[in-house]
Design brief:
Layout: E1 2-4, E2 7-9, H1 15-19, H2 27-37, H3 50-61, H4 66-83, H5 86-93, H6 107-110
Antiparallel strand pairs: 1-2
Length: 126
Amino acid sequence: MARIAGINIPMNKHVWVGLTHIYGVGNTQARKACELAGVKHETLVKNLTDAEVTALRAQVAKLSVEGDLRREVSMNIKRLMDLGSYRGIRHRRGLPLRGQRTRTNARTRKGPRKAAIKMNAPPGKG
């Protein structure tokens, strides 16, 4: 397996698809990294030479990926929460941030519905 930015890239995939397994590298950045490294993006990862892998590593190293990016994102969220901004409060409460309605929908942020009655409880105890 080719190891780039601490991630094992799947062997039987095209290079650009394999690069998208790295947190912070999407389709566009993966194709651009291949182009700058001089690698055809439809090449399979298992057919890469050591020189090509090294060139790809150098291109990905220029990007903010994996641990650094996760840390940056979490610090941005923490900053919003510490400021007490509207978005920070929504993060703290686990509610949608960007104006979505919460009376219906919003299940992704709020989690599964809470049961209105306790299941298997004896009558009169719910």
